[in-house]
Amino acid sequence: MALHRVNTDDYQDQLHAKAKRLAEAYREFTDLEPELFPSPPIHYRLRAEFKVWHEGGVAHYAMYRQGEYKKPFIIDTFTVGSELMNQLMPKVLEAVNSSEVLRKRLFSAEFLTTLSGDALITLIYHKKLDESWEREARALQEKLGFPILGRSRKQKMVLERDFVTEKLDIDGKSYQYKQVEGSFTQPNGHICRSMIQWAKNACGQNSNDLLELYCGNGNFTIPLSENFEKVLATEISKVSVNSAQENIQVNGINNLDIVRLSSEEFTQAIDKVRPFRRLAHIDLDSYSFDTVLVDPPRAGLDEDTCAMVARFPRILYISCNPETQLENLKFLSRTHRIERFALFDQFPYTDHTETGLLLVRK
C-alpha cells in the first residue's frame, strides 16, 4: 500500500478513471462497460505487515514508499487498515516499548483481522524466542484479548492459535472460514463479499457440476457449491487445502470435494496423461462439468491450463492482474465471448485492478 493516509474526496473520481482505463484495455474483446464494485474508502484492509523501525531505543511502525526501499518512513496511523487493526496497533506498540524482551530484535509486526471482529498479531524477530519472550507475549495476549504468535528463523511459537475465523454474509446466508496465518486470504473483506455474490449471480442455478482451480481455503467454492449439483476443486497449498476441508465441514457442505493438485497436474489428470494417488478416491468421469472457475496467481493461466478450460461451456475467470488475463483472452476469445465483466476495487488509491469475467462458448 503506497499511502497510510488517503484523501477520500478523490475516491469516486479515481474509481471511475480506473474503470475507464479497464474498459479501454478490454475493448478488443468486449464492448461491455465493467460492473463497478467499490470499496469502503477507509478501513478496508484486513491484513497488513509493518516493518518495525528502532530509533533511540524506541520501536516504531514503518513502511516503504513505492520505489524507495532503502529507508522506511515512520507511521502513526494506518487509515486503510481495518478499525480493529487501528485499535490494536498502538496497544501492541506500547507493550513492545515497555518490554525489552518484546522489543529487542523485533523487525516486523503483522496484523490479520476479519469483518466478524477476530484478530491475530504476529511478531517476527531476528532472535530465538525463549521462555521469557513467551511470558511477556502471553501477558500481552491476555491484555489484548486476541492471540499473539511469535516467529523467528526456523521457529514458530503459537501461544493460542495461528488462525482467525471470518464470517461472511452472502445473499442472506452466513458462511464461516478458517484463515490461517501466512496463507492467502482476500485482503479486502468487503470486496471479497462482493466478488462471491457476483460469482454466484453470474453462475445462477445449475443442474450440472462445477470445477474450480486455485480454490484456496474454499472462499468461492463453499458458497458456489449451492448453485451446482457437485463441485470438484483443486489447490496446491497443503495449508489451504486443510483449511478448506475444515471450512467444508463447519459449513455443512456435502457436494464438494477438494484435492491437492496444481492446475498443471489436474490438466494432466483430466487428460489421462498420468494417474495421481491424490485423486484415487475421485471418479472424474462421474462429473458433468459445464462451468469452470479460475482465480489464478498474477502470472495467469499457463498454456496447457488455458487450453483445458477452453473446453468448458462457461468460464468464470477472476483475476488480480488484467495484463495476464488479457493475454489469456487472446486464446480464450477464439471459442468464448464475454457475457459479464466486473471491476472489483480491492486496493483503492492504487493502480491495482481486480476483474471478473463470465465467458460463454460462442
TrEMBL record:
Does the keyword Secreted belong to this entry? Answer: no
* Binding-site list for S-adenosyl-L-methionine: 186, 214, 219, 235, 295
Concerning InterPro entries, the annotation shows: MeTrfase_TrmA_AS, MeTrfase_TrmA_CS, SAM-dependent_MTases_sf, TrmA_MeTrfase, U5_MeTrfase_fam
Active site per UniProt:
320, 354
| Reaction(s) catalysed by this chain's protein | uridine(341) in tmRNA + S-adenosyl-L-methionine = 5-methyluridine(341) in tmRNA + S-adenosyl-L-homocysteine + H(+); uridine(54) in tRNA + S-adenosyl-L-methionine = 5-methyluridine(54) in tRNA + S-adenosyl-L-homocysteine + H(+)
Q: What Pfam family does this protein match (any one)? A: tRNA_U5-meth_tr
EC number in record: 2.1.1.35
Gene3D superfamilies, from UniProt? 2.40.50.1070, Vaccinia Virus protein VP39 (3.40.50.150)
Q: What class of enzyme is it?
A: transferase
State the source organism's domain of life: Bacteria
Q: Which GO terms describe its molecular function?
A: tRNA (uracil(54)-C5)-methyltransferase activity, S-adenosyl methionine-dependent
GO BP terms: namely:
methylation
Family, similarity comment: Belongs to the class I-like SAM-binding methyltransferase superfamily. RNA M5U methyltransferase family. TrmA subfamily.
- NCBIfam families this protein is in? trmA_only
Q: What exactly does this protein do?
A: Dual-specificity methyltransferase that catalyzes the formation of 5-methyluridine at position 54 (m5U54) in all tRNAs, and that of position 341 (m5U341) in tmRNA (transfer-mRNA).
Q: What is this protein called?
A: tRNA/tmRNA (uracil-C(5))-methyltransferase
